[in-house]
User: Fold these one by one.
Assistant:
Number 1:
Amino acid sequence: MASKLQQENRAEFKRYKEDVRKEGKPFFPYAIWHDTVMSLVVVAVIIGLAVLWKATSDGTDAGALGPLYADKADPATTNFVPRPDWFFYFLFYLLRIFKWPETVVLGTVGIPTILLILLIGLPFFDRRPERAILRRPVAFVAAILVIISMGTLTWKGATAKENLGAETLALVPEWAKKQGFEGNADAVAGAKLFAESGCMNCHTYLGAGSSNLGAPDLSAEGSKGRGIQWQIDHLTNPSSKTPGSPMPSFAALGADNLKLLATFLEASKGEKK
Ligand code: HEC
């Protein structure tokens, strides 16, 4: 004895087959013809845009569709901030949420794979013929949640500040002012190194940067009374001061730069009230 749902499904399928027989059109030539015409239209539009771009622009002057050639790429640049295309911002931000190395795999592979499997499996676990969205509360809520979370992640990804290079470098004058080391050229130079050397991938400073691997906020590092030499030794070999420290050695920056960094750290006593 077939269940009510099965009977409904079978009746639906029979009606569908009849419709196809009465009103359907064979794949060849109808669908093939459709696809061929549409593909030709798309290719023609692309060729048209290319011709327009080439014809209206000369050299580096912008034409209707941008300049012919921009500056050559510089493979040696260190202050370029790589960014994904906007439609990947949500994945890009998801990755930033998982900070500890052991959990990164969740953001890169885990969550996207689980969601994809759910999507692929949808036709198998949602078998009801109901199509009106308001009579499908679970699907409705799930769709709203997906839209909200992808929207939020895209927004966060679009506005996220990078922790390396130009964007943090621009914060240095503000830091100097808040910490009151504007007059100390060495501390300002150290602050620039700090902004450029990747420190802020692990450390936060006056609200900027991201906190990783349990690295402390360094806004008030100078009030711990460690001293310049301690800072240099710690930067050279972090585990000599904090056994088992996951912070990498920065000895490669050279003695002069480490001194500047240490001066900056010791000048950071926390925001003046
Ligand atoms: C990969 C992550 C990581 C990076 C990159 C990193 N740190 Fe650290 N840092 C840590 C961790 C974890 C600690 C806590 C353990 C320790 O004290 O060594 C720490 C501690 C510190 C401390 C506190 C020491 C104390 O106890 O007073 C200072 C200062 C410091 N880091 C400066 C820097 C500077 C400057 C840079 C960049 C040149 C930098 N860190 C880059 C992870 C990092």
Number 2:
Amino acid sequence: MLPEASKTFEAEGLSDRVELVAGDFFVEVPPGDAYLIKSCVHNFGDERAIELFGVLRRAGAPLLLVDTMIPAGNEPHYSKFDDVEMMVIAGRNDRTEAEWAALVTAAGFEPGRVVRCDERFSLLEAF
Ligand SMILES: C[S@@+](CC[C@H](N)C(=O)[O-])C[C@H]1O[C@@H](n2cnc3c(N)ncnc32)[C@H](O)[C@@H]1O
């Protein structure tokens, strides 16, 4: 993945601001001040998600989780379409904001704010 990622950063003129590191986030993550993980965890079931959050928790920095999060209520929201898509392609559902908070809690984090970024993504802080 690194050559592909490198091209993206070069095209955006950001190469001097990043260090690209390969790795398996179920095993360990490089040291950091915070971990931003986007669109990765909704692919995994609860057990695997808690395993991954456990690796991040033990790394000792806050987590900024950006993913599809179903808000409470019965209003139209993109995440509800994604929920159906995930049922078809992954055999599992998307998660509500409360379900994400419970998962990070199960891994030892304290959940913070949920920030709705756009129609598709929300960010959950976890400390
Ligand atoms: C749906 S993509 C999201 C990519 C990017 N974060 C985005 O939002 O466009 C899921 C990413 O999870 C990465 N991934 C899956 N399993 C992984 C693992 N065990 N360790 C590290 N990365 C992994 C894949 O390489 C892929 O880049």
